[in-house]
């Protein structure tokens, strides 16, 4: 993101007194950014200035502002910000190179307009690697403790390597400065403010200590008692040149660890010398021998103090850790319950609070905090990925964090979590399966389980043992931005597809969790998140997400709670409460789910018998009433066991300790929470194998996994209209393809793909719908906007729909609606006026197409298929039959919303369960055939022959669809939809009776 690759060399050095050299022999400063218009605003990976943030409103607003008081030139870079998670801006230099060489200078400086906020502002630089996205991050900060313009000087010697940023282990962990790819400014969180910046430049002569740096192979060296640790000490130089002067490293085992010299280890001291001329990258080893004392004990630390002369010292001294040994909780032969009880009895209050704390990986600018605060968990929020975003980098990242946990007394491993919600969707190149709404359309529990197996295998192969999935919401209003995270609007459909829990976890007793292809699952969002009332949200500009669910207790039980009963029976390991509030009409008014002890403890844990642990949603406790202490107290006492507090982990654990000491949170409640967390860690086998098992890494994005996803895509395609049997297409036909979603892997994958909100474009490897059609069919022409001539074609295929969004950012009324875009409407109109046409709607929810339904010959709900667009082509060209059924009601207009199966008044465009078929024989006959099917269905129901019962209902449904196609009415739609619900609950005879009523009305 740079104006041009030659910016530094193309600008004249500044020679004014204000920007003069700090010493007589220093070189003149060199301008990096003058902000006079030479640097464009851009979007990554384009070169220029770009903004970023944790959510949609976190990126700051930037402008080049004319200022009379500009310290340099006439303009400054100015902006405003209001950041809840994280946010800032980057100037990334030309990715194509050449990189900039900053090695001749002492540091970087710039003018900053202070507002005396007292906040610290981080400044980071990108060093080394192939390009800006594969470089190391080095960081420092300065305080906004002044008012007005001030020139900030940041010597390169002040920059520290960001171990939480990848590539893990670094390219070389040396601030070489010869290949610089840009800089970034991270703005303060939790305050609304403005800033201005000007005159970024390099100053001074290079500090000699920067030409050589000393590093160690790791910060922590675990070793079994009685064995020796070999600590590697490596010298590196800028540009990998040999040392110009000697470097010495004095070492000694310090006495400020927990191990006792002479009892637990043999003290060592000495000096390692790297003479002048030593090659960069040379490593010497220091051996630290531990002693066996035959007694069982916790882990003990042996700090190794390094004193470096002639080079930059490591950011922190390494520690040798004598592994915990001989304690009962370490004996994998013991039952998990006994191991948990033993370990729990040894933990201090602070250690217990640490286990209840989950931080974001991006907050780990000081990775030593993992051990210092005894953190129980880390997570990657949406888009929080290593660089490069590869499976290997993920595994190295997780391992580096796990290594830090080994420096704690009892070496309790972290449990690392991600939102792997439709495949390991965080990782570029992973298999991205259809979102849940598409799986709901398949009506195929076994296939849903197999897609989850793909997700579990690919996720665990990167070292991540926990996914925040599946979402068991029952989506009752398509205006909700999370509709696609739901399997459908019917709790019976959601329950039928909870086979995904077994796909993720394996057997219900948790005995498969230690396998290298299984992960801990999370049932979310407990409870009622799919039933929030439109207009009830108070979160930013959201309209329905995180709003209020207004139901009776009976409705809550029947619709929203029922999927959780099944999830608990299936052994789901964790549950995440909803951001939303619940109003049961009992006089309490809306109460946030994170505060509802009656449901989290009373219903979920006590009545349902849930024995896993409850994890909060991202910063969700901040939405509870009261001060922070009240928020912590309320949520923990309500039944929250682990708190997702991404950037406030210190505040949470400290506050919890204070609340416990004051008696406002009981020791019994804390012990219950920690026992639940430790139980899952033991079940996952993390104490025996905390590090990534990457043997299956080659399966990530493999042909076999993509084949499963492709099958799910094909089964999810829902044929709503097929006049004259237009579909399937024939390979001999000349096909005209148009539409915004025909050739966009990002659009067809939707939100939660690589980043939180997802994005349009070529964001990850896969097959677009267009590419699938090209591979499967015959002659084809593509014109996205239908601007190419439309004469001479047999059939048109127009692929339209939504662009990616996630959560409340996708709420209708928050910049979104259910209408096709003007461009999509124009493409449909032009193509369908010129030839017979099929319209495919790629979206996370139904789109309003009623005004164009008459001109469309075939209509397909393609949902969000993910990376395997070939599955769409499979059904369009008849390699597989259309079998998908609507998981949600398709409305005629927005005025009908919410509209759901079972409503007293029900007159949709297409009813719940609707889905025409191809390559399938529809039964002959009418009411006589239906009568025979009803009798057989009642018999199947009596004998528990579920497979036979479902087939009989399907036969009746096909017969009704043939009769009703093209003239659906409320008298047809209502019993038709009811029949699908009845079939999912095993009432096959009643389902056929409803279908018979629909047939008669047709």
UniProtKB/TrEMBL annotation:
Catalytic activity reported: Hydrolysis of terminal, non-reducing beta-D-glucosyl residues with release of beta-D-glucose
Sequence ranges assigned to domain Glycoside hydrolase family 3 C-terminal in this UniProt record: 718-917
Signal peptide (UniProt feature, chain positions): 1-23
Domain spans labelled Glycoside hydrolase family 3 N-terminal: 349-679
PANTHER family: LYSOSOMAL BETA GLUCOSIDASE, PERIPLASMIC BETA-GLUCOSIDASE-RELATED
Superkingdom of the organism of origin: Bacteria
InterPro entries from the UniProt entry: CalX-like_sf (IPR038081), Calx_beta (IPR003644), CBM11 (IPR005087), Cellulose_Degrad_GH3 (IPR051915), Galactose-bd-like_sf (IPR008979), GH (IPR017853), Glyco_hydro_3_AS (IPR019800), Glyco_hydro_3_C (IPR002772)
Span of domain Calx-beta: 220-308
The keyword Repeat belongs to this UniProt entry's keyword annotation: yes
Cited SUPFAM superfamilies: (Trans)glycosidases (SSF51445), Beta-D-glucan exohydrolase, C-terminal domain (SSF52279), CalX-like (SSF141072), Galactose-binding domain-like (SSF49785)
Family: Belongs to the glycosyl hydrolase 3 family.
Protein name per the record: beta-glucosidase
Record EC number: 3.2.1.21
Enzyme's top EC category: hydrolase
Keyword annotations of the record: Calcium, Glycosidase, Hydrolase, Repeat, Signal
Domain CBM11: start-end pairs: 31-205
């Amino acid at each position: 993101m740079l104006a041009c690759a030659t910016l530094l060399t193309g600008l004249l050095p500044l020679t004014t007194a204000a920007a003069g050299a700090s010493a007589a022999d220093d070189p003149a400063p060199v301008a990096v950014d003058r902000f006079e218009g030479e640097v464009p605003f851009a979007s990554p990976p384009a070169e220029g200035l770009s903004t970023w943030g944790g959510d949609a409103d976190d990126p700051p607003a930037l402008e080049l502002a004319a200022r009379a008081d500009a310290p340099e030139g006439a303009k400054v870079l100015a902006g405003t910000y209001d950041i809840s998670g994280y946010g800032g801006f980057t100037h990334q230099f030309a990715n194509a190179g050449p990189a900039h060489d900053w090695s001749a200078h002492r540091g970087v400086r710039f003018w900053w307009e202070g507002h005396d906020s007292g906040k610290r502002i981080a400044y980071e630089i990108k060093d080394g690697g192939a390009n800006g996205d594969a470089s190391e991050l080095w960081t420092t900060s300065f305080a906004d403790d002044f008012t007005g313009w001030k020139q900030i000087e940041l010597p390169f010697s002040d920059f520290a390597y960001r171990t939480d940023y990848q590539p893990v282990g670094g390219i070389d962990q040396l601030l070489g400065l010869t290949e610089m790819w840009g800089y970034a400014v991270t703005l303060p969180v939790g305050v609304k403010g403005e800033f201005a910046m000007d005159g970024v430049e390099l100053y001074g002569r290079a500090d000699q200590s920067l030409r050589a740096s000393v590093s160690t192979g790791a910060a922590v060296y675990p070793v079994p008692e009685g064995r020796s640790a070999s600590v590697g000490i490596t010298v590196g130089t800028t540009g990998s040149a040999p040392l110009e002067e000697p470097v010495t490293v004095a070492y000694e085992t310090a006495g400020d660890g927990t191990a006792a010299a002479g009892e637990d280890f043999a003290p060592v001291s000495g000096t390692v010398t790297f003479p002048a001329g030593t090659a960069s990258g040379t490593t010497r080893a220091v051996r630290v021998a531990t002693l066996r004392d035959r007694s069982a004990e916790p882990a003990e630390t042996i700090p190794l103090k390094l004193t470096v002369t002639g080079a930059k010292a490591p950011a922190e001294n390494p520690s040798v850790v004598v592994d915990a040994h001989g304690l009962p909780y370490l004996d994998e032969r013991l039952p998990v319950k006994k191991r948990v009880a033993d370990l729990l009895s040894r933990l201090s209050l602070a250690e217990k609070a640490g286990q209840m704390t989950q931080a974001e990986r991006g907050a780990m600018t000081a990775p030593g905090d993992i051990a210092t605060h005894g953190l129980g968990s880390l997570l990657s929020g949406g888009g929080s990925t290593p660089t490069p975003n590869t499976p290997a980098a993920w595994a190295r990242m997780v391992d580096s964090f796990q290594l830090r946990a080994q420096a704690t007394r009892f070496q309790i491993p972290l449990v690392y979590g991600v939102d792997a919600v439709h495949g390991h969707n965080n990782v570029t190149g992973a298999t991205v399966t259809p979102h849940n709404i598409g799986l709901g359309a398949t009506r195929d529990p076994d296939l849903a389980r197999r897609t989850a197996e793909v997700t579990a295998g690919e996720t665990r192969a990167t070292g991540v043992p926990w996914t925040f999935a599946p979402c068991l919401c029952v989506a009752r209003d398509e205006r909700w931005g999370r509709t696609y995270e739901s399997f459908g609007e019917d709790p019976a459909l959601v329950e039928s597809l909870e086979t995904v829990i077994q796909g993720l976890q394996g057997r219900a007793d948790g005995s498969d969790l230690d396998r290298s292809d299984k992960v801990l699952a999370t049932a979310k969002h407990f409870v009622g998140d799919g039933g929030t009332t439109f207009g009830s949200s108070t979160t930013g500009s959201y309209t329905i997400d995180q709003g209020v669910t207004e139901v009776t207790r009976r409705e809550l039980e029947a619709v929203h709670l029922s999927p959780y009963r099944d999830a608990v029976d299936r052994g789901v390991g964790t549950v995440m409460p909803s951001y939303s509030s619940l109003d049961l009409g009992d006089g309490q008014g809306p109460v946030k789910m994170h505060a509802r002890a009656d449901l989290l403890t009373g219903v979920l844990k006590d009545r349902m018998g849930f024995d896993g642990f409850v994890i909060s949603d991202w910063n969700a406790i901040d939405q509870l009433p009261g001060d922070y202490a009240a928020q912590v107290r309320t949520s923990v006492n309500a039944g929250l066991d682990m708190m997702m507090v991404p950037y406030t982990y210190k505040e949470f654990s400290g506050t919890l300790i204070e609340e416990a000491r004051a008696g406002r949170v009981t020791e019994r409640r804390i012990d219950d929470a920690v026992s639940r967390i430790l139980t899952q860690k033991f079940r996952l086998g993390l104490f025996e194998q905390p590090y990534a098992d990457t043997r299956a890494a080659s399966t990530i994005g493999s042909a076999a996994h993509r084949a499963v996803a492709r099958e799910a895509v094909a089964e999810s395609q829902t044929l709503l209209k097929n006049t004259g049997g237009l579909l399937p297409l024939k390979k001999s036909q000349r096909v005209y393809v148009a539409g915004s979603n025909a050739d966009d892997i990002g659009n067809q994958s939707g939100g939660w793909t690589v980043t939180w909100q997802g994005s349009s474009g070529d964001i990850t490897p896969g097959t677009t719908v267009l590419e699938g059609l090209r591979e499967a069919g015959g002659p084809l022409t593509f014109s996205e906007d239908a601007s190419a001539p439309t004469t001479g074609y047999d059939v048109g295929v127009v692929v339209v729909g939504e662009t990616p969004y996630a959560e409340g950012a996708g709420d209708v009324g928050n910049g979104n609606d259910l209408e096709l875009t003007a461009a999509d409407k124009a493409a449909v109109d032009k193509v369908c006026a010129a030839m017979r046409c099929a319209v495919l709607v790629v979206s996370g929810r139904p789109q309003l197409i009623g005004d164009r339904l008459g001109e469309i010959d075939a209509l397909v709900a393609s949902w969000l298929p993910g990376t395997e667009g070939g599955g769409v082509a499979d059904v369009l060209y008849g390699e597989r039959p259309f079998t998908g059924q609507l998981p949600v009601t398709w409305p005629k207009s927005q005025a009908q919303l919410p509209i759901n199966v079972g409503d007293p008044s029900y007159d949709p465009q297409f009813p719940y369960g609707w889905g025409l078929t191809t390559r399938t024989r529809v039964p002959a006959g009418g009411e006589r055939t239906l009568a025979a099917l009803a009798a057989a269905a009642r018999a199947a129901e009596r004998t528990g022959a579920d497979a036979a019962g479902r087939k009989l209902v399907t036969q009746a449904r096909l017969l009704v669809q043939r009769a009703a196609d093209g003239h659906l009415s409320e008298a047809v739609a209502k019993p038709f939809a009811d029949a699908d619900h009845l079939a999912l609950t095993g009432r096959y005879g009643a389902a056929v009776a409803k279908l018979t009523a629909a047939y008669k009305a047709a």
